[in-house]
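A.,

Following up on our hallway conversation. Structure tokens first:
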């Protein structure tokens, strides 16, 4: 298979990442089906297009024709089978839980055409933890987008030991078609490149808050003013979702059993209180 053979892309999950990945693919001219178990998330994704694109057209980022075509190219459905059955390439962007991803890939393998490639947008989980739930591990890899996926250009493509070079190459070529800068990681490692750096920053920032050394606002100010970061770690956690940070840490802790991988008390508290960041209008900051 070659990248030119890809006509239909299926995106699983219409959450913070999924709906923007779907529209990124549609803007690149692909027929896209986006599926989610939650009808509410599918409606939200459609609503997003109605409010977001007019602003972008007026800023000159895309033309009205490009946007109209992209919206026409994208379908949202709760029906998994319908979304998957004609896909040439599937990007899974459902919740960050290995058990759910494995189940999804098993289902995908049963329904999707034999030639279809399956990529996971997981933030940390290497695809070898998922690929053996299919009968096509050579066609499974990581394709890790960044938030917001319509804006951020970088995509990490991770080739696991089971991933064929053809699959990794097609995924890199697809990045290019989607106007993204792919980086090809030829070895799997938990968290890939960017999130390994980010995790180290989050860990230190949360430790300083948990120890009462400084507030989230002060730490954000320190990192933006002194280190030139465009956004502080707490504002970034609010943006990507404190629920996601908690789930990622919890998954890791369950896997390693190492107490240092446990979610920090501040993140556990935010998660329990439903203060998940921008999506819930409150996190370390308020977004009312
Ligand atoms: N948020 C980020 O900044 C970010 C960045 C890069 C990658 N990721 C990764 O992207 C994936 C999704 O993250 P998100 O932040 O968009 O999460 P989210 O919680 O916003 O969205 C996840 C969506 O998956 C849906 N879902 C759950 N189980 C499903 C199933 N069985 N079938 C179909 N849909 C299902 C949920 O209803 C929800 O709409 C995760 O693997 C995450 O690690 C997130």
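Then the amino acids I'd put at each of the 288 positions:
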């Amino acid at each position: 298979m070659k990248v030119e053979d890809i006509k239909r892309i299926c995106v699983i999950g219409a959450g913070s990442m999924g709906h923007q990945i779907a529209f990124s693919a549609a803007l690149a001219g692909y027929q896209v089906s986006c599926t989610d178990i939650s009808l509410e998330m599918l409606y939200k994704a459609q609503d997003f297009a109605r409010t977001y694109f007019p602003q972008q057209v007026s800023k000159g980022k895309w033309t009205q024709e490009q946007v109209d075509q992209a919206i026409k190219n994208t379908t949202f459905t709760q029906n998994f089978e319908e979304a998957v059955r004609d896909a040439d390439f599937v990007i899974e962007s459902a919740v960050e839980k290995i058990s759910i991803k494995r189940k999804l890939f098993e289902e995908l393998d049963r329904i999707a055409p034999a030639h279809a490639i399956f990529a996971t947008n997981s933030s940390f989980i290497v695809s070898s933890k998922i690929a053996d739930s299919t009968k096509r591990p050579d066609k499974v890899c990581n394709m890790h987008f960044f938030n917001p996926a319509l804006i951020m250009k970088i995509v990490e493509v991770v080739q696991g030991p089971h991933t064929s070079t053809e699959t990794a190459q097609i995924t890199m070529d697809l990045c290019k078609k989607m106007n993204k800068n792919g980086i090809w990681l030829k070895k799997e490692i938990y968290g890939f490149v960017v999130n390994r750096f980010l995790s180290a920053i989050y860990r230190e920032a949360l430790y300083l808050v948990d120890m009462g050394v400084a507030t989230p606002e002060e730490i954000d100010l320190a990192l933006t003013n002194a280190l030139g970061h465009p956004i502080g770690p707490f504002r970034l956690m609010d943006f990507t979702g404190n629920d996601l940070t908690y789930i990622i840490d919890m998954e890791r802790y369950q896997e390693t059993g190492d107490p240092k991988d446990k979610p920090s008390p501040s993140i556990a508290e935010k998660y329990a209180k439903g203060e998940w960041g921008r999506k819930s209008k409150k996190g370390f900051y308020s977004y009312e």
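The chain has twelve helices and eight strands. Curious whether your intuition agrees with the design.

B.
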